[in-house]
TrEMBL record:
This is Heme haloperoxidase family profile domain-containing protein. Coiled coil: none annotated. Residues 43-250 form the Heme haloperoxidase family profile domain. PROSITE patterns: HEME_HALOPEROXIDASE. InterPro entries: Chloroperoxidase, Chloroperoxidase-like_sf. Keywords: Heme, Iron, Membrane, Metal-binding, Oxidoreductase, Peroxidase, Transmembrane, Transmembrane helix.
Amino acid sequence: MAIELLECPVFDWTYGLMMWSSYLSVILALPLAFAHYHDGHGSPSHWKPPGPGDFRGPCPMMNTLANHGFLPHDGKNLTEKTVVQALKSALNFNTSLGSLMFEMAIVANPEPNATFFTLDHLNRHNVLEHDASLSRSDAYFGNNHIFNRTIFDETRAYWTDPILTPNMLANSKLARQINSRASNPQYTFTSKTEAFSIGEVSAPIVAFGNMDSGLVNRTLVEYFFENERLPTDLGWKKKQEVISLDDIVKLSQMITQATSLLTAKEGLVVRNRDLHAGFSFAHQHS
Ligand code: HEM
Ligand SMILES: [Mg+2]
């Protein structure tokens, strides 16, 4: 902690001031330094909603981390160091996973060779933000990044038990895609979107659930989406195990499997002269 403090530019600045300025300027500088202290040094118990001028985006977790001060509260200047540190201190992600996520996100900043992005950059439609979100409207219908109660209720209709299973999470994803494709003439969902979306559907398990079973407490997930706040008040604690890319891959495979609408076992007995079997025969030979 002491070393972190010494590396902190705000502290360096305050420290410099203390060395050569008068007692009075130190007194004046301290509250300023302290106000900045939470940026990037958040805590699960400290939470402040965004104010005017603060950027927020379509990711409930990035917004949450900014609300807790793990990321800069204004949602700006998210560098690799800041993002890696935030994901580590808030959720126990290892450094390589945090770096990878940053690398994947940097395209959100339209500037070439950018070294940071903002939460506002994440709103750019069909860059990372996509249609059929669990809690946001499609860009075609309006705001694509603010929490949307109607959309989230659509999602929650498939969360039918206090303990969410991978199937329930997958069902809500599929339902959102079907509703979106049925109503949005500009519905877009590529294989890249699918990979991203699978990650997002797994994310509540990563943060709040059991990585082996894929089960997660519904109340924690709803509280998180609705308040953009870590569910500390409901008894949640950061995972003790460090989370790596391997964990994410395993979980993504679990959710991918759950999004298949095929059942595992052959339950259907197909007779030779069955109409459907005939169709499939015709397809194979055309
Ligand atoms: C560098 C870090 C991250 C970036 C840049 C990022 C970015 C995004 C973006 C752009 C979306 C919007 C996709 C859409 O249109 O639905 C999104 C959604 C989402 N993200 Fe993140 N994210 C990050 C980390 C995380 C983490 C660590 C979690 C939780 C463990 C998380 C949870 C979610 C969830 C649950 C959604 C889906 C929201 C919805 O469908 O309504 N994200 N993220
Ligand atoms: Mg979206």
